[in-house]
Specification:
Blueprint: H1 2-9, E1 15-17, H2 24-35, E2 43-45, H3 53-77, H4 114-124, H5 130-143, H6 148-161, H7 167-176, H8 179-189, H9 194-207, H10 211-219, H11 222-232, H12 238-251, H13 255-261, H14 263-273, H15 278-292, H16 305-317, H17 322-336, H18 340-346, H19 350-359, H20 364-378, E3 380-387, E4 390-398
Parallel strand pairs: 1-2
Antiparallel strand pairs: 3-4
Helix pairs in contact: 1-2, 3-4, 4-5, 5-6, 5-7, 5-8, 6-9, 8-9, 9-12, 11-12, 12-15, 14-15, 14-16, 15-17, 16-17, 17-18, 17-20, 19-20
Length: 401
């Protein structure tokens, strides 16, 4: 079995989740036997029905042994770190999130490791309850201020369980265990740990796929906590900022929270810093779109000329990215319809909109999007005309006010 051989020989493998795979009883046994030879593997999740009690306990002992050895190595090494780990990335100033600096005054408990403690309980419960079990141990990690590295791995485990294709198998038990409250408490407890903030934002983005979880995050102040971490680590972590924007995008329409917690004021500087990164720009624009389209434009007043400028810069920087261009056009069209002053501001973006048309002039869908955007921005009637395989515009008089 190739996977078993990899476990035996790979000296860097820490984490392996194989639940939901068709391993069979013999395959599961082979993996546990292979784990005997590994000195690095710290977590291996296998469907509990594939393991008898003795082999499940043996797996727990192996993983506990490796985790204990890793902890002893950390204690011997102390605080010695490679000089490179202390320096920010030369290109973009990002912190090294795997070597977080938690400050000399922070006292963390190095005796409670949620990853070790949850291994045995995980093997004894059905798949549907495992996300709830992880939430319980994350709560304990907050209460006892467990080492941030261990806490971060626990949040990552929850993120893996919250993947789009399987989250519906876990979410009910997670919500019953007040899992959303635990995640937000983790962000508060480990407010100085960018890796944990990043992983929590990623988890929130995944939870937002489920309506009940999304509503729970909004009701319990999730927007506030995401914005708070964006401000706390402004410009320090590309991944954190991307995950924070993904969380805001997933949470969708909550305009009152956006106004209350100053989301736009936190979001625009990120767009300016990360203008070369298309995913960051796309998440930001799509997040703003959810608010711009809410309740027939009721909340458009929270946007200003700086928003238009940021969208224009993003579209100009990534002319070949259809998702970004589509989101940008839709947001500009919504802003142009707010009032005459904003329409005139958006007119400056017409070159970027027309570049989109030139790049994708064979697409009826994008052609119609450009047409409607151009009409909103220019205040003129615009008709989309097909000539063979290509599209073009015809312009008429002003739109009726």
């Amino acid at each position: 079995m190739r996977l078993a051989q990899m476990i035996r020989t790979n000296e860097t493998l820490l984490d392996l989740v194989l639940t939901g795979n068709d391993l069979g009883i013999d395959g599961a046994r082979a993996l546990v036997d292979a784990a005997e030879s590994s000195t690095t593997l710290q977590r291996l999740l296998i469907d509990d029905e594939l393991l008898d009690e003795g082999r499940g306990e043996r797996l727990h002992e192996i993983l506990h042994r490796n985790l204990k050895a890793a902890r002893e190595t950390e204690n011997v090494d102390g605080n010695d770190e490679d000089d490179d780990d202390d320096e920010a990335d030369e290109d973009n100033g990002d912190v090294d999130e795997e070597q977080d600096d938690f400050g000399p005054d922070d006292n963390y408990d190095d005796t409670f490791n949620p990853l070790i403690e949850m291994n045995a309980p995980m093997l004894k419960v059905p798949l549907s309850e495992r996300m709830g079990i992880a939430a319980d141990y994350l709560r304990k990690a907050c209460e006892q201020r467990s080492k941030p590295t261990w806490t971060s791995f626990t949040v990552k485990l929850l993120g893996e369980m919250a993947a789009d294709d399987v989250i519906h198998n876990f979410i009910d038990h997670f919500l019953a265990k007040s899992g959303v409250e635990v995640v937000l408490k983790t962000m508060e407890t480990f407010a100085r740990a960018p890796a944990i903030q990043r992983d929590c934002c990623h988890l929130i983005a995944r939870l937002a796929v489920v309506k009940a979880a999304r509503q729970a995050v909004l009701e319990q102040g999730g927007v506030r906590d995401v914005v708070r971490c964006m401000r706390a680590f402004a410009g320090q972590s590309k991944q954190l900022e991307q995950m924070a924007l993904a969380a805001l995008c997933g949470l969708g329409v909550d305009p009152e929270s956006w106004a209350e917690f100053g989301v736009i004021e936190a979001l625009l500087p990120v767009m300016k810093r990360r203008v070369a990164e298309a995913p960051t720009q796309t998440f930001a624009i799509e997040a703003m779109m959810t608010v711009a389209q809410a309740e027939n434009g009721k909340y458009l007043s929270i946007f200003d000329e700086a928003t238009v400028k940021a969208v224009h810069e993003a579209m100009s920087a990534h002319p070949k990215d259809p998702r970004l261009q589509t989101a940008g056009c839709r947001l500009l069209a919504a802003l142009a319809e707010r009032d005459e002053g904003m329409r005139k501001v958006t007119c400056e973006c017409m070159p970027a909109v027309m570049r989109l048309f030139e790049s994708f002039r064979f697409s009826d869908e994008l052609g119609e999007l450009v047409r409607s955007t151009y009409a909103s921005m220019s205040g003129r009637h615009v008709t989309l005309v097909r000539n063979g395989s290509e599209l073009s515009f015809q312009f008429a008089g002003a739109l009726e006010q």
